[in-house]
Amino acid sequence: MTVNIIIDGALGRMGRQIASLAAGDPDFEIKGAVEAPQHSHTGSNYGDLIGAPSVKVPVVDDLSQIDTSRCTIISFTEAGAAAKLLAKCAGMPGKLVLGTTGLDDNSLTKLKELGGNKAVVFSPNMSLGVNLLFYLTEMVAHKLRDTFDIEIIEAHHRHKKDSPSGTARKLGEIVAGQLDSGYDSAVKNGRAGLVGERTDKEIGMHAVRAGDIIGDHTVLFAGTGERLELKHMAHSRATFAQGALKAAQWLENKGPGLYSMRDILQL
User: Fold this and answer.
1) Amino acid 101: pLDDT
2) Which of the following is catalytic: 41, 160, 188, 254?
3) Strand pairing report for 95-98 and 203-209
4) pLDDT tens digits, one per residue of 93-107
5) Which has the least CB within 10 A, 57, 75, 127, 129?
6) Known catalytic residue: 156?
7) pLDDT reading at 267 higher than 90
């Protein structure tokens, strides 16, 4: 069965990566390409812009210009654009795969409401490996919570705007839950000055921004005389694009609901 997709943020780094994979896969058909209002390439043929002659759809600057019925919208836009997308999707047919990070509480509430009416997959990271990291972190944190200190280190390219990353925040939420604590009360973002000794339920959160690092995440468990590290390193944005396309396929026979990559991986 061919999966019809609409790419939101079509000319961004992730949009182009998703399009490149989908255009060469007979299981997918690109039915629409959306970019920001007044984008310089509005009206241009999307296939010409991404080097995919088989794609014959114009770049538009408003989702309402596309028939979204029987389609899945895939979006990795920044948080502000994602908030507007959620509002538009509420009154339109179609399904949604959202990989945006840094959503505020209002957007997360809208996302939950949207899941009551249509099928939505949301994950701060679409990588299959990272979602296994979430699962393993929960297991290990549950076992070592009383005897090991837990720290999270993430590294991304110099252009990333949010910190910590959505993936690191998700890892922090998972660990905090196993410590019977809340994210905001447990997480310490970096350390500077005379901060005193580490507390038992403290989670250190450390962000690196440098060069063209795609995305590295490490969860460090340190005890007396030993330590364990769970680490994921992304070598290419293709891993996130592949996960998003897998999510779109998985949604084909799903009814309304807010799903995660954990559902797709059956974890």
Assistant:
1) 82
2) 160
3) unpaired
4) 999 999 988 889 999
5) 129
6) yes
7) no
